[in-house]
């Protein structure tokens, strides 16, 4: 068993105020808690991982090239591998979510990213 207390989780901030924390996971899947500040959007991007995004607090808007989904508390969306998307908080309050990636991925996706 791997226990990861939230206060001890590895964290990083891809952009100011956009915090992420690595929760328990493996090479086959990873869980990342995140908080997105008011008005923030990730850039449109894709990756080799399937992804489930779950809204825990506030509202998140997930955009793909073909669709948009508004996630309220406990709503989720599944994204296929290589499906271009971005996640936006268009409110004036912070939003909190949980991303699940399969296969697992590390923080280097955002920290080593070239624009």
TrEMBL record:
Residue ranges annotated for the Cupin type-2 domain, each copy included: 37-101
Gene3D superfamilies with a match to the protein in the record: Jelly Rolls
Entry-linked Pfam families: Cupin_2 (PF07883)
Classification via InterPro entries: Cupin_2, RmlC-like_jellyroll, RmlC_Cupin_sf
Name of the molecule in the record: Cupin
Organism of derivation: Halorubrum salipaludis
